[in-house]
Design a protein that fits this description.
With 97 residues, this protein is mostly helical. The protein has one domain. Helix content is 81%, strand content 0%. The chain has 3 helices and no strands. The chain starts with a helix and ends with a helix. 2% of the residues are buried. The mean pLDDT is 92. InterPro entries: CCB3/YggT. Keywords: Membrane, Transmembrane, Transmembrane helix. This is YggT family protein. Pfam families: CCB3_YggT. It comes from Qipengyuania aurantiaca.
């Protein structure tokens, strides 16, 4: 039982990191879109690195999402799916207790 709780905590921590990266990607994208910050080399490389990390998670969601024009809702869907998985995982662990 303790092993399941440990695994759940590790998955929860990784999910939190992914959610933080999604939020950072969103904020930097907004800053670029509204020309709040210039496209300097550091921010561009940081933004591209986050995109490379998140693209394998966002690409399948984008494939099934309808085209909404300028607004990309796939990061929101990813955050919702991660939270659903965490809730189901917690329910499974509590049921096993």
């Amino acid at each position: 039982m303790q092993a399941l709780i440990t695994i759940s905590n590790i998955i929860s921590m990784l999910a939190s990191v992914i959610i933080m990266l999604v939020i950072i990607q969103f904020v930097i994208g907004l800053l670029f879109a509204f020309n709040v910050v210039g496209r300097n080399q550091f921010l561009m490389s940081f933004y591209e690195g986050i995109n490379r990390l998140l693209d394998p998670l966002l690409r399948p969601i984008r494939r099934f999402m309808p085209n909404t024009g300028m607004v990309d809702f796939s990061p929101l869907v990813l955050i919702l799916l991660i939270n659903i998985v965490l809730i189901v995982l917690d329910g499974i662990i509590m049921g096993a207790a």
